[in-house]
Amino acid sequence: MPARPLLRPTLIALLVLSLLGALAAVAAVPGQAGAPAPLKITAAGVGQVKVGATWRSLRAKGLVGRMRPGCELAGPGKRSARLRPPLRGGVDLTRRSPRRVRTIAITGGAEARGVGVGSTSAELRAAFPRARFDHGTDEVFEATLVRIPRGDGGPLQFLVSTTTDRVQMIGIPLIPFCE
User: Fold this and answer.
1) pLDDT by residue (tens digit) across 135-154?
2) How many CB atoms lie within 10 A of CB 136?
3) H-type helices in 39-120, by residue range?
């Protein structure tokens, strides 16, 4: 019968260790463990999508969707393509063959110096101290254009909503307007 008292402390120790292991595993997994880190935006492009890259090479890598008609106001022959996840947005392409990326418009999935879609203008100003805020589009588009000069990490352009004071779009090298 003396084996029984030894069994209880051993069993209790095993239960405590397994409980501690389970708690450590839960604590090690943050709420967004499965979410990928946002891609990095630079003046050259975002992730593997670079300004000047051909549409065919990006399509072969699965980075952009099919080519489709671009802005009607740009005239005939204008083409664009949507970015594939994890990025959201699109690319405008040149008119001549081979079609190359002319501008990139990002609406999610990437950040420039920690500033992405949804960031405030104060966060934008802190990350890019030489940013130039242009309020000429405030009334017409209800958005402020923020230009990042070449010496401060640009050329980049941010579109900040005048109603929410948050970034809505990031353009490399500029925001493409169609309407």
Assistant:
1) 999 999 899 999 999 989 88
2) 9
3) 55-60
